[in-house]
Amino acid sequence: MILRQVFHTASCSYTYLLASGRGGEAVLVDPVLDDIDRYVSLLDEFGLRLVRAVDTHLHADRFSGLGAVADRTGCTTAMSERTACEIVALRLADGEAITLDGLSLRVLHTPGHTPDSMCLLLNDLLFTGDTLLIGGTGRTDLPGGDAAAQYESLFGRLLRLPEATRVYPAHDYRGRTFSTIGEERRLNPRLQVRSRAEYVALMDALKLPKPKLMDEALPANLGRFPRPMQPTVGGQR
Predict the structure, then answer these.
(1) Which of 28, 127, 147, 235 is 20 to 30 A (C-alpha) from 121?
(2) Mean pLDDT by 10 residues, the chain (237 residues)
(3) What does pTM read for this prediction?
(4) What number of other Cβ atoms are within 10 A of residue 34's Cβ?
């Protein structure tokens, strides 16, 4: 199997390129607009054809690359069926699978960070978006956030997976590349609560600053005004 993790420095976010390596089909998880050329280079390097590009949720801190990568590669864009995004082509139900060349990524709806948050489970690999981070969890104070719903997504779904399940988040601010469900159960400070009410109180007390790009990125990612042009190599438009 091919798994490549691409780091976007400005937003400290990860994009994942996945393929079985058999028939040449690939899926891209959480692409960033700035990095389209990097993804295309990886596809060319491995001789892959992108068939799906997926956002795990509606991003508020960066411009999604879904539309741009579809324009470049002809792939199908996908998000949760609960998303408010107006331009996504395929809406995924809880329990549905994205299949390609022998790989099957199962959709797990995990609302809380956003109403449309979902994770993707591939055997013992879990791509958690912003629901579960390494040593943290996604903030719940942005539009549509719900700390009580996130508690259920975490404790009712994700933390019931086997401890060896690898956790690949959409963000990390300290350069860590993956964790496991077992490590997060034991070491993640936000998961040491004893009740839903305690978790809600913890999240409500965070008082985090507003994402710098939210006012521009959120409407663009919803499809309500045109996304910025994606620069080509060398910075030319």
Answers:
(1) 147
(2) 95 96 94 97 97 97 95 97 94 97 96 98 98 98 96 98 98 95 98 98 95 92 68 32
(3) 0.93
(4) 18
